[in-house]
Amino acid sequence: MRELPEKEFKNEEAKSTLTSEQLAALIVDALIDAGIIDKKRVPEAIEIAAEEIEVRKALGDY
C-alpha cells in the first residue's frame, strides 16, 4: 500500500483529512491489490477517481 507523505500533514486534525487525490490513490491502491486495475494505469485511474470525488463533493453527493 502506498504511504501518504507525512510532510503534507501540519497538525493532528489534518492527519484525518485526505485530499480527493489522496483518497483516490488509496482506493486505486486497493483495486490494484485486488487485481482489478493494472499497475501501468495507476496515474490515469487516480486522475479519474479524484475527478469523480471532486464532482461528488461539489454536488454534495456524499
Helices and strands in order:
Blueprint (H helix, E strand, L loop, with lengths): L11 H4 L4 H14 L8 H18 L3
Helix pairs in contact: 2-3
Please explain how this structure is put together.
The protein has helices at residues 12-15, 20-33, 42-59. It is mainly α and 62 residues long.
Percent strand: under 5%
Helix tally equals 3
Multimeric status of the protein: single chain
Calculate the mean pLDDT score and round it: 85
Care to count the β-strands? 0
Largest sheet features:
none
Gross morphology is globular
Q: How would you spell out the order of helices and strands?
A: HHH
Low-pLDDT segments: none
Give the CA-CA distance, first to last residue. Answer: 25 Å
- Residue share in helices? 55-70%
Computed structural class? mainly alpha
Radius of gyration: 13 Å
Compact description:
With 62 residues, the protein is mostly helical.
Overview features:
62 residues, mainly alpha
